[in-house]
Structures are given as C-alpha cells and as structure tokens.
Write a structure and sequence with these properties.
Number of strands: 7
Order of helices and strands: HHEEEHEHEHEEH
Strand order of the largest sheet: 5-4-3-6-7
Strand content: 15-25%
Structural class: alpha/beta
Number of domains: 2
Number of helices: 6
CATH superfamily of the largest domain: Glutaredoxin
Helix content: 25-40%
Largest sheet: 5 strands, mixed
Shape: globular
Mean pLDDT: 84
C-alpha cells in the first residue's frame, strides 16, 4: 500500500487536509442514497394509522376536507395562541408551506375562541388554512394532549411522523423530505 499513488498524496498533506478528505469520503455513500430517514417520532398512538378524516370550516374562508387532498403529503399542526412554543414553531411551518406548494399544510387552533386563532394567523401571516377546534374534537381524534403537536401524513394517507414538544425545529421538514415531498 505504501506505493499506492492515492495514499502518498494523502500522506504528504497535513492533518487538517487529511481530515477533510476523510469527511468527504464518509459523505459519499450518504449522497448516493434516496430520501433520508425521518428523525425519531414523538410518541403518538396514531403514527402508522390512517389519518383521521375531517371536514371543517376554515377561519380564512372556505372549507377544508381531508378527502380533497388524497394522494398528497400533508402536515397537520395543532397550536394555540397562548402556547409560546407553538408561536415559535409557526414561522417555520409557514416557510415550509410557502417553499413547497405540493405539500398540504393545515393548522388546527385549539383556542377557546376564534378571535385568538385569528390573532395568531395575523401575527404570523399564515397562508395555509386554519380550522378552529374549540371543543377539541379533532384534538381528541388525533390524541393530542400537549402542544405544540404536528403530524406528517404520507401520500397514502398514513400518519408517518409526530412532532411533540421538544422536537428540533427542523424535525417536521426532515420528516417531509424523508417522504420525498418538499425536496
């Protein structure tokens, strides 16, 4: 091996250059692979299950119906105006929505009144539809017990990822990219 041309070139370089080459070589197999694995999901009873179907009026006007988005990846985000972590996460979700129009994003406000939900929509300039779940019927169907909580649904309508409190800021985006959506 001492006479191999590649080894001589690396041996003549300094330790930093050698480390850089090792890092580049280590990344090559990862670059050749298809979508990356999603981050670990938060515990949720509905991961692996079919998306709970719903049809609700949208606070910005119109109606949202899960039947109308079959065949598309979807993100369902539960939030409230009083929830500080929710408020910090919404701009990232809005950016994901704007960057990937092929992805359906729906917000579900669990605020006691629609005015609080409308304040959140205005504060963050949300362009994805938001439904109001005052009586927490949807939160019950999705088994949401804490906020923020976000679900990623694949193109077949299966919940494949759940992001509860404590997930990294990029977790939902990584889960969406793992589906091959939003790439």
């Amino acid at each position: 091996m001492a006479g191999a041309p590649g080894h001589q070139a690396i041996r003549r370089t300094g330790p930093l250059a050698r480390a850089a080459w090792i890092a580049v070589l280590a990344l090559l197999p990862a670059c050749a692979q298809a979508p990356t694995a999603p981050p670990p999901s938060s515990p949720s009873r509905i991961v692996g299950e079919t998306l709970p179907a719903f049809r609700r009026p949208v606070l910005q006007g119109g109606t949202f119906d899960t039947d109308g988005v079959s065949g598309r990846a979807m993100v369902v985000d539960f939030f409230a105006d009083y929830c500080r972590p929710c408020q910090r996460a919404l701009p990232t979700l809005e950016a994901l929505h704007r960057a990937h129009p092929e992805l359906t994003v729906i917000g579900v406000s669990v605020d006691d009144d629609a005015d609080a939900a409308m304040r959140t929509i205005a504060r963050h300039h949300l362009t994805f539809p938001v439904v109001h779940d005052r009586s927490r019927v949807l939160a019950g169907r999705f088994r949401v017990t804490e906020l923020p909580f976000t679900f990623v649904v694949d193109q077949r309508g299966r919940v494949v990822f759940a992001a509860g409190p404590g997930q990294p800021d990029d977790a939902v985006g990584r889960a969406v990219r793992a589906l091959g959506a939003g790439s």
